[in-house]
Each structure stands twice: as C-alpha cells, then as structure tokens.
Amino acid sequence: MSKSIAVFGLGRFGRSLATELYNSGADVMVVDKNEFLIDEISDKVSYAVIADLTNEESIKEIGIENMDVVVVTMGSDLTASIMSVMVAKEVGVPYVIAKAADERMGNILSKMGADKVIYPEEEMGIRTAQTIVSDDFLEYFNIDNNLCLLEMRTRPEWVGKNLIELDLRNKYHINVVAVKFHSKMRSSIDPNRPLEADSKLVVILDKSDLAKFRNE
Are 15 and 7 in contact (CB under 8 A)? Predict the structure, then answer.
C-alpha cells in the first residue's frame, strides 16, 4: 500500500520533492496559494489544491487528517510554516517534516510539533564540500549524527584486488554495501571479484573516521 503524502509549498524544493515522490509510487497531494504553480504540476501528482497556508481554516478544509506524512517546504515563510505544522499535528497527521532556512526557524518549528526538521541548503553545502575536498568522493549523504554514506571511485592502489584482500573494514572502519561494475550497481557483492579502474563503491562509515580515510 502506497503512502499518502502532502507537500505544502511549491518552490523549487517542494516541486522536486512532490514529483519524485509521485514517480516513486506515493499518493501525493500538493498545496500552494499560487494558481499557476498548481496548474503546472497538477498532471504530475495525485491531487493539486489551491489554499492559503497562513490560514488555519483553509488548511483544515484541505482534508489532510488521513495523510501518512505532511512535508512543509516554505523555508522562507515562517508564518505559513508554523500554521501548517500546527494544524497538521492538530488533525492527527502522524509524521510532519518541515524545511527550515536556519537553526532559529528549525527550533521554532520543532516546538510547534514538527517531527523532523530539514535544512536542504545546509545539507547540499556539506555534500558539495565533501566531494570537493576529495577526488575519490562522488556523492556524500548524512545518515544520522554519527554515520555517513559515500559513493566513491576505486582508488588506483585498489585496482586488481578484491574486497577480502583490501580488508577495508579493519583498515578504515568502512562497510561496503554496494559495488558498481560497468555502470551497474550490485548490492549482492562477490568479495572475491577484483575491483576494476571504473568500479564505484558505496560505503558506510562513522563521520569521526572520515577525515582519516579521506587523507590516507
């Protein structure tokens, strides 16, 4: 059974999130006061609703009480974000995610009831920084406060060796969760297969080990 998700706000982040969720099989409702944006996305989601998200009654009339998740994406509009979070929790939405422009806004939204606060610009800055400082790293993702996930190139000295020989877990405290050979990602890993020059690894490691691993 697919999840029912409401996305409040159709800025760039909200539009991208809504269409990706819909394409992934979710039942997606989008809400914004801008009629043009609603018309533009209406055939790319399940439902598209025009509403003033600064108005409590307008939000209640949408009918979000049966939604599994509400994502509030108006990071630059504190009033609309506060009202949306408060009403969503009041009508019983079990999980509310709110986008915040900064830590102060995030703290306010948490106090208003948001179950999770995200900082997309900050996350993108961290990801970009990590890929800039290391030639090996292709993508960087936070998993939680302690762990991160990396997609990385095979280091030249690893080419021709298999994962058993490299013993990456003991040497660098990293866990290889997938390997890409010839543009095909494989989660079922043959530890005896030698890595190739164009192989990519997806690994999980503790953030405290990241600097050491990057510099070795």
Answer: no
**86 and 21 in one domain?**
yes
Span 111-149, pLDDT tens digits: 999 998 888 876 766 666 666 656 778 887 877 778 888
Q: Is the dihedral of CA 177, 180, 184, 188 positive or negative?
A: negative
- Helix, strand, coil % over all residues of the chain, rounded to 5: 40, 25, 35
Question: In this structure, are residues 135 and 215 in contact, taking their beta carbons and an 8 Å threshold?
Answer: no
What 3-state class would DSSP assign to 64? coil
Closest CA to 59 of 10, 9, 25, 123: 9
DSSP state, residue 10? -
Domain range spanning residue 172? 123-215
Structural contact between residues 140 and 152, judged by C-beta atoms closer than 8 angstroms? no
Look at residues 166, 175, 173 and name the one whose alpha carbon lies nearest to residue 195. Answer: 166
Final residue belonging to a domain, choices 101, 118, 135: 118
Same domain, 148 and 83: no
CATH code, domain carrying 101: 3.40.50.720
Q: Indicate if the pLDDT at residue 169 is higher than 70.
A: yes
* Domain end position, chosen among 96, 118, 140: 118
Q: Is 92 helix (H, G, I), strand (E, B) or coil?
A: coil
Residue in this structure with the two tokens 């543009």, named with its chain if needed: 183
The pTM (predicted TM-score) of the whole model is: 0.65
C-alpha 107, offset from chain centre: 20
CA distance 169 to 84: 45
